[in-house]
Amino acid sequence: MVLTIPLVLLLAVVVGLLLRFRAVGAGAAVVVALFGFYLAHTGAADTVNHLVTAVTDAVPGVGR
Q1: Which residues lie below 8 Å from residue 24, measured CB to CB, with a gap of 6+?
Q2: pLDDT for res 1
Q3: How far apart are the first and last CA of the chain?
Q4: Is 64 in contact with 58 (CB distance < 8 Å)?
Q5: Mean pLDDT, to the nearest integer, of 55-61?
Q6: In sequence order, which residues have a C-beta less than 8 Å from that of residue 26 and are 6 or more positions away?
Q7: pTM of the entire predicted model
Q8: Which of 13, 16, 17, 52 is 20 to 30 A (C-alpha) from 25?
Q9: Which residues have a Cβ under 8 Å from the Cβ of 17 and sit 6 or more positions away?
């Protein structure tokens, strides 16, 4: 059985945990989220998307 989790959901959980354990402040979390939205509208979006895709494709092969 394969379980798929959207990357945005996984990142939201990580940010939520960082906020919960006060590893990052609410202001910093908002700034990082806004940076992500603005980054998505630049020419770097394709590069970031390819990088994330390559990493997520490589993760299942780790440890084999």
Answers
A1: 15, 18
A2: 64
A3: 18
A4: no
A5: 86
A6: 19
A7: 0.69
A8: 52
A9: 23
